[in-house]
């Protein structure tokens, strides 16, 4: 029997899952690790924490399952994107990794835009200069820690450091490399023009592969630490969202998924490269060789509901504890008692600024239309609807780029039934959940199956493995009721844009 391992390197912990060739999970294990915030706006992690967690969870799933290492035919790795791992000449980590949510690089983003040009940077890397991406982090280290930059011999992304520890190879793959802002995204290779203008040596970077390609094999040293068999193949894998796309079957035109976690994502597959010249959505290479994806991001999706729960739902939390249910379950029930439109109350979910469609760090959350008639249930529903409107903004921009969506999956902890129904009514298409909940870990295990020859292609593997579970169909009368509220929602940000700037300038 053939088995495959998917490693999902997240921000809070690493989860490793062992699957059979049908995508059934036999065993899983998670090890958590700390996040370091030495200053406001900084976010760092220790790459060796990731490797220790990966090695530990691999050992755990092999022990739990009883599967022999001879039967493990391939490994795929998914991971948090954009993090900067710097290695010295001995392959040792020079400094803690500056990770995706770190915001220290505003000056470096200005430097990138000045050196390359805003329009040209989007043409090559498919994105404007962003603080979260890797290139600006490299420049920050060079500008602020020249002694560390001078020691640097190799630069890797988080999951690619785990690959290096498993195989000894300095490699990455196109989906994760797309988030570095050093890749020519249309041509799927490092951009000599960007590297030259930023004065970054190409030799610092690993070799770029397609996601199902074999990038190396497990070394004797890694085999001793993990319990794997020496020589087991390790494929390219994928960045977290690209891996989730494979794990939910979003690997062909017309297919997309919506995730509601702390942030919200609308991710659509495209067989052709399409770049938004305004930089409102991200275009990356996807995990299907020769194809791409477009991704819109709502910064304060699940975060908005969590913020409301933590500040205004103490009674729901107490009742939920007595009933043995999740407070969000009771909050959903309350929201269902309010009508579509929340009794003429709108919520803008900009608690953390916004990425799509406004790309504005200064915008902030708003309840619009609040009056004495409103109750907590109206505010709860308004929060849910506001996030759904923002995600609909993302879908509409993607559609406007010539990438239609007819099949929408939903994943992430926040996609409750009421939220899925709102999305179906606004999107005008069915919103489905996958029967398998492993997402990114399953996605990279499928890539390992393709790399090992178990399936001929990623779409073929997904058609064989991915099954849908729940389906929310759009309700036409609901869609008609939402239309005027959504239209008004889209008018509020332009009306408030200058006021947001004034607010940000106040002491």
Supply the key terms:
507 residues; alpha/beta; Nucleotidyltransferase, domain 5; 7-stranded mixed beta sheet; 18 helices
Task: Please describe the topology of this protein.
Blueprint: E1 3-9, E2 13-20, E3 25-32, E4 44-45, H1 47-65, E5 72-79, E6 85-87, E7 97-98, H2 106-116, H3 118-125, H4 134-144, H5 146-151, E8 154-156, H6 158-167, E9 171-173, H7 174-177, E10 183-184, E11 189-190, H8 192-198, E12 207-209, E13 214-217, H9 220-226, E14 233-235, E15 238-239, H10 240-247, E16 255-260, E17 264-270, E18 282-285, E19 292-298, H11 302-312, H12 314-323, H13 327-336, E20 346-348, E21 366-368, H14 376-400, E22 407-411, H15 417-427, E23 431-434, H16 440-451, H17 458-465, E24 468-472, H18 476-505
Parallel strand pairs: 1-5, 5-14, 5-15, 9-12, 16-22, 22-23
Antiparallel strand pairs: 1-2, 2-3, 4-7, 6-8, 10-11, 13-14, 16-17, 17-19, 18-19, 20-21, 23-24
Helix pairs in contact: 1-6, 2-3, 2-4, 10-16, 11-12, 11-14, 12-13, 13-14, 14-15
Mean pLDDT: 96
By secondary-structure content and strand pairing, the structural class works out as: alpha/beta
Count of domain modules: 2
* CATH superfamily annotation of the largest domain: ATPase, nucleotide binding domain
**CATH first level of the largest domain: which class?**
Alpha Beta
What is the CA-based Rg, rounded?
23 Å
| Oligomeric description of these chains | single chain
Give the biggest sheet: 7 strands, mixed
Instruction: Look up the CATH topology of the largest domain.
Output: Nucleotidyltransferase, domain 5
Spatial shape: globular
Number of alpha- plus pi-helical segments: 18
> Proportion of β residues?
15-25%
Helix content: 40-55%
| Name of the CATH architecture of the largest domain | 2-Layer Sandwich
Amino-to-carboxy terminus distance: 65 Å
**Unreliable runs:** none
């Amino acid at each position: 029997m053939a088995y495959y391992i998917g490693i999902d390197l997240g921000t809070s912990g690493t989860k490793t899952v062992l699957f059979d060739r049908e995508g059934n999970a036999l065993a899983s294990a998670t090890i958590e690790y700390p996040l370091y915030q030495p200053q406001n706006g900084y976010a760092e992690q220790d790459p060796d924490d990731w490797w220790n967690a990966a090695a530990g969870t691999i050992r755990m799933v092999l022990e739990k399952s009883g599967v022999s290492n001879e039967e493990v035919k391939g490994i795929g790795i998914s991971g948090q994107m954009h993090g900067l791992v710097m290695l010295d000449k001995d392959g040792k980590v020079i400094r803690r990794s500056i990770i995706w949510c770190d915001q220290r690089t505003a000056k470096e983003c200005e430097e990138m835009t000045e050196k390359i040009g805003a329009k040209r940077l989007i043409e090559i890397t498919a994105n404007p200069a962003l603080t979260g991406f890797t290139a600006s982090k490299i420049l920050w280290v060079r500008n602020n820690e020249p002694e560390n930059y001078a020691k640097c011999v190799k630069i890797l992304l988080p999951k690619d450091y785990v690959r290096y520890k498993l195989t000894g190879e300095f490699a990455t793959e196109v989906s994760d490399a797309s988030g570095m802002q050093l890749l020519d995204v249309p041509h799927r290779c490092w951009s000599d023009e960007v590297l030259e203008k930023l004065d970054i040596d190409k030799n610092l970077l690993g070799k770029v592969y397609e996601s199902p390609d074999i990038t190396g094999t497990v070394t004797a040293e890694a085999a001793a630490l993990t319990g794997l068999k020496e020589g087991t193949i390790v494929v390219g894998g994928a960045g977290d969202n690209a891996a989730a796309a494979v794990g939910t079957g979003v690997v062909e035109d017309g297919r997309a998924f919506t995730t509601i976690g702390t942030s919200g994502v609308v991710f659509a597959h495209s067989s052709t490269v399409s770049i938004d010249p305004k930089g409102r959505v991200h275009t990356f290479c996807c995990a299907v060789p020769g194809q791409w994806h477009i991704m819109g991001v709502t910064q304060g999706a699940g975060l908005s509901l969590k913020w409301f729960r933590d500040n205004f739902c103490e009674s729901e939390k107490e009742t939920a504890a007595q009933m043995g249910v999740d407070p969000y379950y009771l909050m959903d029930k309350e929201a269902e008692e309010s009508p579509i439109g929340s009794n003429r109350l709108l919520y803008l979910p900009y608690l953390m600024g916004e990425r799509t469609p406004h790309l504005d760090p200064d915008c902030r959350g708003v309840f619009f239309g609040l009056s004495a008639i409103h109750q907590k249930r109206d505010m709860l529903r308004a929060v849910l609807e506001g996030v759904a409107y923002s995600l609909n903004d993302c879908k509409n921009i993607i559609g406007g780029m010539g990438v239609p969506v007819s099949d929408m999956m939903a994943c992430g902890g926040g996609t409750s039934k009421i939220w899925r129904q709102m999305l179906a009514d606004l999107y005008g298409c069915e919103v489905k959940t996958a029967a398998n909940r492993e997402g990114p870990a399953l996605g990279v295990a499928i890539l390992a199956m393709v790399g090992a020859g178990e399936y001929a292609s990623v779409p073929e593997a997904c058609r064989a493995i991915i099954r849908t579970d729940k389906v929310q169909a759009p309700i036409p009368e609901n869609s008609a009721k939402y239309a005027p509220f959504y239209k008004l929602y889209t008018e509020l940000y332009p009306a408030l844009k200058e006021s947001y700037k004034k607010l940000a300038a106040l002491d």
